[in-house]
Design the sequence.
């Protein structure tokens, strides 16, 4: 239904090819991190606050307006930031079709990345697997252990799930 992806080149197009009904959402956290990568520490807080005005806007048109304000303020020093947001705009705007409670559930890929990082640590310790079954068993056990750390539910998940059920009634059966 919705795929939140990081900046991996070609990944959004691949998803749209295999799952044509999927709305591809670019990870807002990655966009912000990439945007401030070359901004000195003294200005990061200010740049991040101005970027937040873009992604926390109530509507797409308000976000576009805030992007223009951002560009007017920062393009002389950091023209690549607004250029990057504009070039990725098609994969940023699906976000604005949803209410705030859903936006919190779909704006980042950090939960997935955390799990992948934990899996890499486990797999790295085992350099050779005697069989595919052994590899699957290790991954299964690792995920089982990782999931024990998941004590907090996704924030506002029930209202988000309710909204998903309405928006995607033909594909989501709860």
Sequence:
């Amino acid at each position: 239904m919705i795929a939140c992806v990081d900046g991996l080149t070609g990944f959004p197009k691949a998803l749209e090819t295999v799952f044509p009904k999927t709305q591809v959402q670019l990870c807002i956290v990655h966009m912000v991190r990439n945007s401030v990568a070359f901004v000195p520490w003294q200005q990061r807080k200010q740049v991040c606050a101005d970027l937040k005005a873009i992604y926390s806007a109530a509507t797409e048109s308000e976000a576009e307006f805030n992007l223009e304000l951002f560009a007017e303020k920062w393009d002389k020093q950091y023209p690549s930031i607004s250029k990057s947001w504009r070039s990725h705009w098609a994969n940023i705007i699906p976000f604005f079709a949803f209410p705030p409670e859903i936006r919190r559930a779909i704006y980042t890929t950090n939960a997935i990345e955390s799990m992948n990082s934990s899996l890499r640590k486990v797999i790295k310790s085992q350099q050779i697997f005697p069989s595919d079954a052994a590899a699957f068993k290790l991954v299964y056990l690792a995920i089982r252990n990782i999931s024990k750390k998941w004590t907090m539910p996704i924030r506002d998940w029930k209202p988000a799930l309710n909204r998903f059920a309405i928006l995607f009634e033909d594909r989501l059966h709860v």
